[in-house]
Amino acid sequence: NVSIPFYGTNQAGILTPPQNFICFAAFDLTTTRVEEVSKLFRVWTEASANMAEGRMVGPDNDKPNLPPEDTGEAAGLNPNQLTITFGAGPTLFDERFGLSAKRPEAFVDFPRFAGEKLRPEWCGGDIGVQVCADDMQVAFHAVRNLARIARGTAVLKWTQEGFQRTATASNSGETPRNLLGFKDGTGNPDTNDAKLMNDLIWVQPSDGPDWMRNGTYMAVRRIRMRIEVWDRSTLKDQESTFGRYRKSGAPLGEQNEFDPMRLDAQGPDGSPLIPANAHIRLAHGEGQEKILRRSYSYSNGIDLQTGQLDAGLFFICYNRDPRKQFIPIQQRLAKNDALNEYIFHMGSAAFACFPGVRQGGYLGEGLL
Ligand code: HEM
Questions:
Q1: Which regions are flagged for Polar residues bias (predicted)?
Q2: Which of 123, 157, 213, 332 is deepest in the core (most CB within 10 A)?
């Protein structure tokens, strides 16, 4: 099947197995009228539902004296599993639109995390849109047309493209590897377990507010890898940094990728096999906080300030309450993670992702 339904209880692109490519877009609103924001979401809803089915964004594409409604580069292409996932940024709840009383309690600003080197041009946004597809041209087309529709109401603030190994490069369904060469995604919760997803991802009626019910919170971190430094470190160092073997992806001391980590396992000298500051050990903590990671690799050419590759992980995760899930994990990692020698966070954004849309409804209904 080449298409993923746009309409449903939850937005697509969250539990959806990650497609090959991402084109992420953060928008800032230029209007100050909440009715215009609401109108934008209505038009975006229809355009997105059309694109998810491989149709043109609108009907007027053949009038010689008008610019075509759809920009055309996806004409004749199948939708390639296109998903378009929308969320509201914290700034949507500032004084401009009178929405501050509707800001969810769980949707707090992130604290400053130790060691981050955030650059404003990679941060924030009134609206976040995660576009994923198995074809980059299809994904780009979606972002471009959303931006075109928004003209006069919202402008792009930043965008980031990303990739993983494609399905044609590996037909075995193996966990993809990140740019540090390690399998990434092994420890994710099981997205087929509906009860677990209600526990960890979807906002429940008791959580409030009503307009977020069946929605979720997205955390985005643009994380640069110091690739040149990593490439000079030994295999043993690399493996103790993560706490897993590079080849198999198994936790240190174990055989297979999906074997549970044994935190009490010791080496011959009595020291823990998985070091106290290993990434998986710290990220796991006491096993209290869990998130659904849905990250992509990125590569943006050379950082002109340093002459080094601007490449890394475009980290995205979903959780039901960032105060209890993403934030405590990231606080532990920021402080002590062995990986910090090889990475730094240069972008950050948070979005409250709307519930899914029913046929006839629109994104953000209940809020806008
Ligand atoms: C696990 C890589 C940043 C949270 C892992 C694993 C790798 C990895 C290779 C082991 C395999 C797996 O379970 O997927 C990276 C890299 C990062 C990064 C390269 C930055 C460039 C982060 C951040 C967070 C995070 C920012 C959250 C704040 C986790 C969690 C696990 C994990 C929760 C699973 C731990 C468990 O098994 O319970 N990561 N990660 N990671 N990572 Fe990261």
A1: 166-175
A2: 157
